[in-house]
C-alpha cells in the first residue's frame, strides 16, 4: 500500500495536492497540446481539473469546457467556469463531450483506479470524440532519483524515491519564495500490453501518440 499526502500553506486535496501551489503553477504547454489535437470549438470535459490551470486556457481557445474535481477548494479558484464537484471514478453526467481530458498523469494511479478512470472517460466521450491522456514519461520510472530542480521560480526538491515492485513512491518539496509544500505520491507504470487491455475493457481503443516522449496520447471509442 502507498499513501498520498500533502502539507503546507492552504488547503490540501485528498490526493495531497496543495491548492495554493496549483494556483501559482504555470502551464507547461499542456493547453497547446490538447487544443492542437482536437477540432476547433470541441467541447472538453477535464477530469481532475484542479484550479483550471489547463482548462482555463482551453476555454480561452474557444472550447466550451466543464471541469470535474473532488476538491471544492480547487474548484473555488475557477468559479467563473462550469464545474462539478465529484469523484472521477463514479462520475455519471448523463451527457457526452467531444473531448475528455485526463491530464496531470492521473492515469498513473493504481491499476484499479486507472481502470475506473478509463471507464469514466468512455462514459463521457461522444461517438467520434476523443479522449486525451497525459501519462508519466515511461523512462521516469527507471531514472528518477533524489535531486533538486529550479524552474519558473519553483524549487522542486525530490526528497525521497522508493521503488516498491514496479510502483515508485516519491516525496517532493516545492519551495516558492518563503512557502514550502510537501507532496508524497505514487506512480504506477503502464506497459503497452496493460494499456491496450485496460482500454479494451473500458470500451476504448488506442488512437495515436501526440508527443515523441510518449507522455500524451489519444484514445477513442472502440
Ligand atoms: C495534480 S492535480 C492537477 C490539477 C490540474 N489538472 C492541473 O494540471 O493543474 C490533480 C487534481 O485531481 C483531483 N483528483 C485526484 N483524484 C481525483 C479523483 N479520484 N476524483 C476527482 N478528483 C480527483 C485533485 O483534487 C487535484 O485537484
| Overall number of structural domains | 2
The name CATH uses for the topology of the largest domain is Rossmann fold
| Count of β-strands | 12
Instruction: Indicate the overall shape.
Output: globular
Head-to-tail CA distance between termini: 33 Å
Assign the structural class, choosing from mainly alpha, mainly beta, alpha/beta, alpha+beta, or little secondary structure: alpha/beta
Instruction: Identify the CATH class of the largest domain.
Output: Alpha Beta
User: CATH superfamily name of the largest domain?
Assistant: Vaccinia Virus protein VP39
| Biggest β-sheet description | 7 strands, mixed
Radius of gyration: 17 Å
The poorly predicted ranges are: none
Helix and strand string, N-terminal first? EHHEHEHEEHEHEEEEHEE
What does this structure look like?
This protein has two domains: 156 residues, Vaccinia Virus protein VP39 (Rossmann fold, 3-Layer(aba) Sandwich); 48 residues. Helices cover 24% and strands 35% of the residues. The two termini are 33 Å apart. S-adenosylmethionine binds next to loops.
Amino acid at each position: 500500500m502507498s499513501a498520498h499526502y500533502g502539507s503546507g500553506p492552504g488547503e490540501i486535496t485528498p490526493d495531497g495536492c496543495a491548492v495554493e501551489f496549483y494556483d501559482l503553477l504555470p502551464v507547461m504547454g499542456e493547453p497547446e497540446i490538447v487544443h492542437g489535437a482536437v477540432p476547433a470549438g470541441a467541447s472538453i470535459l477535464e477530469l481532475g481539473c484542479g484550479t483550471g490551470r489547463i482548462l482555463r486556457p482551453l476555454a480561452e481557445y474557444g472550447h466550451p469546457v466543464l471541469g470535474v474535481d473532488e476538491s471544492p477548494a480547487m474548484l473555488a479558484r475557477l468559479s467563473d467556469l462550469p464545474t462539478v464537484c465529484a469523484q472521477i471514478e463514479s462520475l455519471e453526467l448523463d451527457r457526452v463531450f467531444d473531448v475528455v481530458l485526463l491530464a496531470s498523469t492521473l492515469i498513473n494511479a493504481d491499476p484499479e483506479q486507472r481502470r475506473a478512470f478509463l471507464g469514466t472517460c468512455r462514459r463521457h466521450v461522444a461517438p467520434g470524440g476523443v479522449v486525451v491522456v497525459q501519462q508519466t514519461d515511461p523512462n521516469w520510472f527507471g531514472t528518477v532519483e533524489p535531486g533538486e530542480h529550479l524552474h519558473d521560480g519553483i524549487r522542486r526538491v525530490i526528497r525521497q524515491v522508493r521503488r516498491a515492485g514496479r510502483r515508485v513512491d516519491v516525496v517532493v518539496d516545492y519551495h516558492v519564495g518563503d512557502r514550502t509544500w510537501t507532496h508524497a505520491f505514487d506512480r504506477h507504470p503502464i506497459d503497452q500490453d496493460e494499456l491496450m487491455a485496460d482500454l479494451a475493457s473500458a470500451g476504448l481503443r488506442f488512437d495515436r501518440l501526440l508527443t515523441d516522449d510518449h507522455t500524451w496520447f489519444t484514445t477513442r471509442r472502440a
